[in-house]
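Reviewer has doubts. Consider these tokens.
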Amino acid sequence: MKKLIMGALVGTGAAYAWKRLASGSGGRLDDATLAGDSDDARLTEKVKSEILRDPDVAKGQINVNAEYGKVVLRGEVESEDMVQRLVEAARNVQGVEDVESLLKVS
């Protein structure tokens, strides 16, 4: 049991270190990280803010999730053109590596 717990801790630590290095932070822990803010949460908020600039998007209409720089958009929109606008807006946010659209045209 001890080996299992120790292995889980080592694996978690390695995954965290890899994420920090892959994100370009050089492994540094900044104040936001120490305070518990995650890069993913900040990226999610930045993307939400950007897509809500579109006057055709109502607050709460689009769900945004981010993990390791990949953003996933979910929700219903009026047209394929709007899907493309929202995906492009998300791609233009600093820190976004990839965008997956699960948006549906209603």
Observations:
- DSSP finds four helices and three strands in the chain.
